[in-house]
Amino acid sequence: MSISAKLSRRALMARSVSSVAAVLGGSFLPQLGTLGQALAAASGGLPGYKALVCVYLAGGNDSFNLLVPRDSQAGGSRYDTYRQSRGGVYDPNSNPLGLALGFNQLLDVGTPMGEGSAYGMHPQTADYVASRNGQNYQYPGLHTLFGQGQLAFVANVGPLIEPISKTDFNAGAPRPPQLYSHNDQELLWNLGIGDTTAITGWGGRLLDLIDSGGHPALPPNISIAGNSRFQIGASVFPYQMSATLGATQLLSFDGSTTLFGEQRRLALEALLGQPSAHLLTTEYASTLLRSRELEQLVRGGLSSPAGQLNTSYDYSGPNAPDPAMGFYPDANLHLMGEDYPNRLQDQLRMVARMIKLSRDPSAGINHSRQIYYVRLGGFDTHASQMTQQQVLLAQVSQALGWFWQALGEIGAQSEVTAFTMSEFGRTLSSNGDGSDHAWGGIQAVLGGEVLGQRIYGRYPQLMLNADNNALQDWSFARGQYIPTTATEQMGATLGRWLGLPNAVLDQVFPNLAQFSGPLSFLP
Amino acid sequence: MPRAWRSSHHAFWRPVSPPLGCPWQILILLVLVLLQAPRAAAQDLVFENGFEPGAGLSEAAAARFLTQASFGPNRASIAHLRSIGRDAWIDEQLALTPTLARPYLENLQAQGVSVAQSYRVNRFLHSALAAPDQLRQRVAFALSEILVISDQPDNLTNDWAGVAEYQDILTGGAFGSYRDLLRAVALSPQMGRYLSHWRNRKAFGQSKPDENFAREILQLFSIGLHWRNSDFSLMLDGNGQPIPTYDQSVVTELSEVFTGLAMPCPQPPGLCNPYSGLTAVFESYQPMACFPLFHDLSSKLLFDLDPGPAVNQVVLPAGPACDPEPPDGSALEAQCFAYCNDEIDAVINAIAMHPNVAPFISRQLIQRLVSSNPSAAYVERVASVFQSTAGNLGAVVKAILLDPEAVTFDLSAPGFGQPDHAGHLREPLLRATAVWRAFEAQPGVCDGSCMGIANPPPDLVDLRMYAGSLTEDFAQRPLGAASVFNFFEPDYRAPGAVTMADLYTPEFQILDETTSATAGNALLQLVWSGYHSFSLAFTQPTQAAYLPPAVVDGLPQDSAQLLDELNLRMLYGSMSGSYTVGNCSAGSGMQGVLYELLACAMNGAEHRRKVLGAIHLIAISPEFSIQR
After folding, report:
1. Which of B208, B597, B622 sits opposite A281 (nearest CB)?
2. In chain B, where are the structural domains located?
3. ipTM computed for the complex
């Protein structure tokens, strides 16, 4: 089924203002497939294969320490401004309250195309070596991936209603509700529209409109990290998996004679199939039904060769960063292996296995478009930020570096784009030994088709209380930056790449017209 | 052939004869049923009305009430409740001494045990199973999902005593005033570490006070983001928009109040200066103390106590000149201590006085105990008790449980006389505790050798409930949520029909294709704990609770009687449909399915196999999963 056919089949796509309301708040169609109503059963979906992977950094990543101006240490330089705003370079002994990274700790990335000066990346984005069974394996960190042109950054991006200057803000211009609140700002990132009463997320809306074809019962929206509004559409709800177990089989209903499995299975199916007038009872029953229906497809596939990867994973020992990197060797980082499991990497491994499986015609999934969701928590670094965030960023960098290598094994580096979201950036100024909730931040995009080694949007000056209309550089007293690029612009760029035609971008991102349109980090 | 049928509409009865076997006793059973049926019908007329006090309570109504008010009903608690009635039962519960966690754990430690958070979790589960103060424990658990801390962050992972003390603060305060509880929580060093106002300093240089706790005490612990009417509906301004309760400037100003707090200096003094010793680090669960040198002295413009902007705004005055440190023992020093302490008290009082607190907290407690979607009138009735008792949680809980909307459950009416969205999804842990309690589970008993302790004290035992990972198996672990937003949020809506019906379903936030199966498998382990799946031999577990063979074997042998007993203990008699004794294909609903399974499909199976198989099947069934 072509997109246009799909659009016309769903009346909600009429080109009218009300269609926006229909997508955002209108009626849900029944969950596809699992109720036997296979929308796309006869469809191969869009040609080829593409997947988006949303890496959600929960708690509000202090991203102004991920990518940092690194022009010079001289007074008045951009780096110096950053250093001042962050209360000086952190030193556990002489300046434990500072939040700035040292000039020489930052990994140089030179001057990206289109920028006026050099930048550096957090030291924990370095390449790394992991060992297993006495053998060493080399993996790229985000720093190398940026230098190779596979990684790009979107600067000072966040939820907006319309472009807003500091003067506008102080005059009461429309701004997203409940700024600085975790759950509200996370919701806004997920919704892709600055209105928290919307029902669907932009990842879900993309797959409402993009024909992914493939298995009729398995949704093309797959979460390895539980529930997120990001993936909920009007007609497509996510399938939720476990990072370590994949799909879980409900035991004791498998024909075991000891437990009377066959007899109890029939009874269970009768109970799950009973009609109920009670909405919650029905909701529970349909969840367990879906779990059982899809478990065989997914678990069977994952345990077959089509669901296995060769890229080394089970590291045997700790992998401390190179002390020459100059970061806190006393933190005794154990980033890999049994001592320090990397939960983001666990999730991305399951994503990589599912991507491999989905691209293998014999496995029966055959989606041509998918959106995955993974999540790492702990970024709400109000305290001990400098020792905590380095561990988290190391996990992000190492997990994505591993994922990139695994995609190489699959041959899918050009078919997958991973991107970060996080509810807000953080205050530049310190609260003692951490930072507080703010607004705009920096997000990363990784993929073979990403036009990388560049920064999209405007990287701010990183000043406290900035108010510069010429530079569009606006912050409040603690260095909470007003975003200059909207969440929608980043989302639209990703959605267009996935297959949403330009003409209907505003169906998914109805506020997009308020801004200067999609960015150019993807074709 | 005479048909003896019973539907779910009947009150429960137990035959006085000993349990009967299969199959020749069916005839006798039929006779019994016929003899008993008229009596059961008579009971219906007299006793089924759930509003009747005392002995008027049916077994089903008692079991249902205990599902809301405890970690699950069992035969003994049903009988006791029926003997005294709901009102007296609640009063009895309100008066019981709290069962605490920290002293138990400290006693273990004193005997040489390396206590860890897993011991705390086992203690929690054991109290849920066996503590007499069931209502208190249940409400404390609900409060732990509102006033959230978690042992997940590194700075609390090893602090089992502190996290246990926090649990005990909630247990001890479960029936006290909400204001007092809020104060205890605000001064808990574990909350201080979790939301980072521990050792929070007034502004110095470019450093500003940490805003974390200031934000969440308003957003999550007391008043929420928007002005509410007393029935929790949103107040709207002239443009039909919600009215914010505060803005960022209030958070910033409030963050200045929560400065200068840290572990009190240990006694005797000398290790720490109580005026300036903020940065000294001690392990403690004592309430945090004020260190005046680090407490902000400016005046604070806080939230409004009437829908604003700036109506009846809370303003706290500036303090005396406490920096530099005044002479030891001076009047000024005393003023500085008083300013810090009084300001904390003043701000807690102001928050507790905010009119939003009553509907905001009442609604969440109703959600945890009774229903995800209470009517506005129900919330208002409870909130008015909250308001009129100055937030007395004992009175609030009583109002929640005795409200007509909580009590209404007419087994003879379509949909039990409730709306089609009443009740809530059982939380995963409450599923486990309900099964344990229904069948009088016993904890695994782990002694010194079981714990691997050399030369253990002879009387050293630890009571073990669950050996696996609650987070991985149930997506829920007491005081172990992934964030301050709890395992699930009060406003979560499952996508699809639930959202379109404008309903909230908090617990569904952690139910998905994976967790529904992992919880089902964990329940399988829990039900079969100690029993060999093939031989059915029982070996007493040391690490996990088990359903005792005496209880399992004592359940009725007869399929119909067994089904009725499981229906009462697990589903307060609400199992849908009916069955026809002796005719497996004539039943309907869940009763029909289970009767067919027990009487025919598993006919000939050993009793234990039937019982354990049926309990597990019910425990994962849709009807059990939704507590109505």
Report:
1. B622
2. 5-92+422-441+512-627, 199-355, 359-409
3. 0.91
